[in-house]
Structures are given as structure tokens and as C-alpha cells.
Design a protein that fits this description.
alpha/beta; Rossmann fold; 2 domains; 9-stranded mixed sheet; globular
Length: 365
């Protein structure tokens, strides 16, 4: 079973539409899908714009992972197959349910990485081909447990096409940082920042690059004998910039390792994070991650809700879809599609091949 994350960069960027298109493509391929969400997803109307939102609909015999309270909230008739006694949410325990009759569902799945891992391990017994984990970019943390991401972005994130394309390019570059080879990586404590020297290791008693003071302390430990620096926790963009400024050329020839792309993304604006990483790379460092979460596909939505000051309401507006697609393709090295116009069946096949290549490479090393 493959595990795929579907992350929206903002409300109304087409995450649910992307999810539904992938479900349909999986169905046409004869694949059984388990669907869940990080957090709650299922409103009829956007709670800010009051515009209609697409609903997640499943066919008969589909599997979903959601909170017990949500089982009866959609139009699909669901049969609870099992509950996870130790995974609780404000909407009750997480459960696995099967659609006895088709219809819409409300998703409120595991919101911690450890809980998602437990669900993934258990769900393999149900004979599914693919698990899709729906979530937003601002709560993407647990998606490090997936085997890759489909990113749904669009004009609702930013109607200025050039700026949106630049941000999407930054996201793609962070997601697709290379993975460190296991043979390169020494034993390290995930509760500590580790500096690997050719004559031993040195550590800071903290795992995150959360402040400028920590960046300064780490910079002092980097010497000509340093071969690798491992930062397993969260990374603040300002602190990363401080590290780049203070270390300068001393990073040349060294490997700077982060735990995963997600811990970089939660540290600040993706454009700023990407620019700092590019500076570090230009200084000669090799930037890698322990757990790669590759970006396999980008979907885009030209729609955005336009606000009217005259009557305090929102209305549907659109940017030029073709110009947006061209701008994205020019900036990112990842397939880009409009799910309402382009073939998701072809994109789905390519997506599975990409995930298979990633899994095979990971197994080989």
C-alpha cells in the first residue's frame, strides 16, 4: 500500500477537488483507497467567504479513517469496522469505517505523526492499494509519514501569478531536497543537534534551531574538522539565516542534514527558507534530509474569492488559467495539472510510477 499526502496551500486552492479526481482515477485503475484527513475537513460552506465548498464523496465499499462523531455526519452510510482506543480527537476516537452506501463523508483523522503511523500500520490489513491523507500546508507535520505529496495551490493563495509561481517553486525545492544516504549518516541523538567531526562528535543539548542564540552556539562548534551537522528538530528561518551568515565559507564541503522538509517548512515563509538554503548551498555546503517527502505532483486552481467592500461579500473570480500553468511549469520541475481540464488518469499513473521509483530507491539504500 502506498501512502500519499494531499496538501492545500490555502483554502479554495482545490485540495478537495484534487482528492476527488485522484479517487476517481484510482477507481478507474481498479485500486482500493483508504481516505483520511489531518484534522477536520467537511464544511458545506467556507466559514470566511460563505461560498460553497466541494464535498468528499465516496463509493460503496470505500474505506475511510475518521472520528467516531463524524461517521453519521455525511450522506454516505458507514459501517465502523474498528476503533483506535488510544487515538482520540475532540470529535471522538479515530475509527476505520466502510461505506455500505455511497455518499459524502466528513473527515477528522489523526493529527499527530505517531498516530498516523499507527493507523498506516493497522490499515494495511484491509487490503488497500493506496492511502490518501488530506491536509493543509499549515498542519502538514504528520505528512512526513507519507511517501510523497501532491500539492494543491492556486489563485486563492495569491492571485498574483508571478508571486504564486515563485512560492510554489520554493516549496518544490524544499520538498525535493536530496536524502542523505544511510552510510553517510552516523548515529545521532534526535534530542540533540549533532556536529560530526573527523575525530568524534560534539552536541548541543537541544534538537531545534529555534533561536539566533542557538545558531550562534552551533556556529562556534563548526570547525575545519567538521564533516556533517545534523539538526533533527524544527528550524526557524531567521535562525537558519543567522547560521548561514556566521558560518559563511566554513560550511563549504560539509553536509548540513535536516530531519525532513516539513521541519523546514514550519519555520517560516517558504520563499525565505528556500533563499537561505540556496545561500548555504552557494557557500559550498551539501544540504540534505534524513526523511525525504518528495513532491510528486502540483495541481492548480485559477479560482479565488474576490472581496467586495461595497456589500461586504465575496464573489467567484479567476486568473488566466493558461498563464498560471505556464508560470508554474517554468518554475518547478514537477508535473503540473488543472484537475478540471487535464487528465487525472494519466497523472495518476505517472504518480504511482514516481512513488514506486522513490520506494525502490529507498529500499536499495
Amino acid at each position: 500500500m502506498y501512502v500519499l499526502g494531499i496538501a492545500g496551500t490555502a483554502k479554495n486552492t482545490g485540495k478537495t477537488t484534487t482528492t476527488m479526481a485522484l479517487l476517481q482515477a484510482a477507481d478507474m485503475a481498479g485500486h482500493r483507497v483508504v481516505l483520511t484527513s489531518i484534522g477536520y475537513d467537511g464544511e458545506n460552506l467556507d466559514n470566511v467567504t460563505n461560498l460553497p465548498k466541494p464535498r468528499v464523496a465516496v463509493k460503496e465499499d470505500s474505506l475511510i479513517v475518521t472520528a467516531n462523531e463524524c461517521v453519521s455526519w455525511g450522506t454516505a452510510k458507514l459501517e465502523v469496522l474498528e476503533s483506535f482506543q488510544d487515538i482520540r480527537t475532540p470529535l471522538g476516537k479515530i475509527c476505520v469505517a466502510r461505506a455500505v452506501q455511497p455518499g459524502t463523508v466528513v473527515l477528522a483523522g489523526p493529527n499527530k505523526g505517531s498516530h498516523l503511523t499507527e493507523v498506516i500500520e493497522r490499515i494495511t490489513t484491509y487490503g488497500a492499494d493506496l492511502m490518501m491523507v488530506d491536509g493543509a500546508l499549515n498542519r502538514i507535520g504528520p505528512m512526513v509519514r507519507t511517501e510523497g505529496i501532491v500539492l494543491a495551490t492556486g489563485a486563492a493563495r495569491n492571485p498574483v501569478i508571478e508571486e504564486l509561481a515563485e512560492e510554489t517553486s520554493a516549496l518544490a525545492s524544499i520538498f525535493n531536497l536530496p536524502a542523505v544516504e544511510p552510510a553517510e549518516l552516523p548515529q545521532y541523538d534526535q534530542d540533540k543537534i549533532t556536529v560530526v567531526n573527523n575525530n568524534g562528535i560534539d552536541c548541543l543539548p537541544i534538537n531545534s534551531l529555534a533561536t539566533a542564540d542557538i545558531a550562534c552556539a552551533l556556529a562556534e562548534k563548526i570547525s575545519p574538522e567538521t564533516e556533517m551537522v545534523v539538526i533533527p528538530g524544527m528550524v526557524d528561518c531567521h535562525s537558519l539565516s543567522e547560521l548561514a551568515g556566521k558560518c559563511g565559507p566554513s560550511l563549504a564541503g560539509k553536509i548540513l542534514v535536516f530531519q525532513d522538509s516539513v521541519k523546514l517548512l514550519v519555520g517560516g515563509n517558504p520563499i525565505n527558507v528556500s533563499q537561505v538554503l540556496e545561500t548555504i548551498i552557494r557557500q559550498g555546503a551539501l544540504v540534505k534530509v534524513v526523511n525525504k517527502v518528495p513532491l510528486h505532483l502540483i495541481t492548480y486552481n485559477p479560482f479565488y474569492p474576490a472581496y467586495s467592500f461595497d456589500n461586504n461579500t465575496y464573489s467567484s473570480s479567476y486568473v488566466d488559467a493558461e498563464r498560471l500553468k505556464e508560470a508554474l511549469l517554468e518554475k518547478v520541475g514537477v508535473p503540473v495539472i488543472n484537475v478540471k481540464k487535464d487528465s487525472m488518469e494519466k497523472a495518476y499513473c505517472n504518480l504511482l510510477r514516481s512513488m514506486e521509483r522513490y520506494r525502490s530507491h529507498r529500499a536499495a539504500v
